[in-house]
UniProtKB/TrEMBL annotation:
Quaternary context: F-type ATPases have 2 components, F(1) - the catalytic core - and F(0) - the membrane proton channel. F(1) has five subunits: alpha(3), beta(3), gamma(1), delta(1), epsilon(1). F(0) has four main subunits: a(1), b(1), b'(1) and c(10-14). The alpha and beta chains form an alternating ring which encloses part of the gamma chain. F(1) is attached to F(0) by a central stalk formed by the gamma and epsilon chains, while a peripheral stalk is formed by the delta, b and b' chains.
Main location: membrane
Molecular function via GO: proton-transporting ATP synthase activity, rotational mechanism
The name this protein goes by in its record: ATP synthase subunit b, chloroplastic
Membrane topology: Single-pass membrane protein
Annotated compartments: Membrane; Plastid, Chloroplast thylakoid membrane
Amino acid sequence: MSNIFQVFNMLSEHIEQKTLGFNPDFLESNVINITLLLSGLIYILKNFLGSNLVARQEKVLLAIQESEERLKQANERLEESQKQLQQTQFVIEQIRKESEITAQKVRDSILEQGKADIAKLTISGKNSIINAEQQVKRQIQQQITTLAIHRVTLQLKSRVDASTQSSIIDTNIMKLGNTI
């Protein structure tokens, strides 16, 4: 309390010197008027500024809530997109594996078909060669037979005369007569 009195004493000394200072006479210094004016301004501005601040606060809170909701929706869409990406990658991997299996089966099938075709062509070629050999053998045999008959015929014509022919005929008639 003594400190307060000292402050007032110092202020009153300044007043006596006609400088700026504290006037302890409240009525003369209009402290009451200034206090009432400041109180009124504070009360009016408090309501005005308070309502503005409350409105701003509500707008900011609403904007924050909307942003949080958009963030939540974006995160949900991101999670859904990631799940779809994983599913798509899984399906792509399955398709790739199936295509590799199918390609291997087709490759094996083509190789087997090629081997079967080669075997058929080999057998067909061998059969054609065998048939050609047999046909050539028959033609050779026919030519040999024809040449042999022709040669025998020529030899018989040159060696057989009329008496030999009549003896052959007589012999054959006798053989036939004995058998009948």
